[in-house]
């Protein structure tokens, strides 16, 4: 058994696609129409193109419990998921210059460094670096 797909809820797939590719640097893997203006839209890391795909899931637009959960996480300031990076400080600097808003600046907890940003699509995302 292995993980091949990870879903992240987004309220606007096109906006999310632009943010995740233009700001975060992910690459488009699949983009298939599903009807009703929805797409099977997946991205991959440029560093691991055969790795797990990130599905930009329009769930909050079609399933109220998904929207409630997403809103609750945002209100609590909790990340929906995390992405590992080589250097939290370097990514923080790069993304800040691109206009990405961070709610938690680079911080250290034990053997980990982390920061949290808003993906503009309803989610807080945590960057993590193992020290």
From TrEMBL:
Gene3D superfamilies: 2,3-Dihydroxybiphenyl 1,2-Dioxygenase, domain 1. This is VOC family protein. It comes from the Bacteria. SUPFAM superfamilies: Glyoxalase/Bleomycin resistance protein/Dihydroxybiphenyl dioxygenase (SSF54593). Residues 2-130 form the VOC domain. Signal peptide: none annotated. Pfam families: Glyoxalase.
């Amino acid at each position: 058994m292995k993980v091949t797909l990870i879903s992240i809820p987004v309220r606007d797939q096109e906006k999310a696609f632009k943010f995740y590719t233009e700001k975060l640097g992910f690459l488009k893997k699949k983009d298939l129409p599903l009807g009703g203006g929805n797409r099977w839209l997946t991205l991959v890391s440029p560093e691991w193109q055969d790795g797990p795909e990130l599905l930009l899931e329009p769930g909050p637009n079609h399933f109220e419990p998904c929207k409630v959960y997403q809103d609750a996480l945002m209100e609590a300031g909790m990340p929906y998921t995390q992405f590992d990076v080589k250097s939290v400080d370097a990514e923080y600097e790069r993304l800040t210059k691109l206009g990405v808003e961070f709610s938690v600046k680079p911080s250290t907890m034990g053997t980990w460094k982390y920061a949290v940003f808003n993906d503009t699509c309803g989610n807080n995302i945590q960057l993590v670096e193992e020290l």
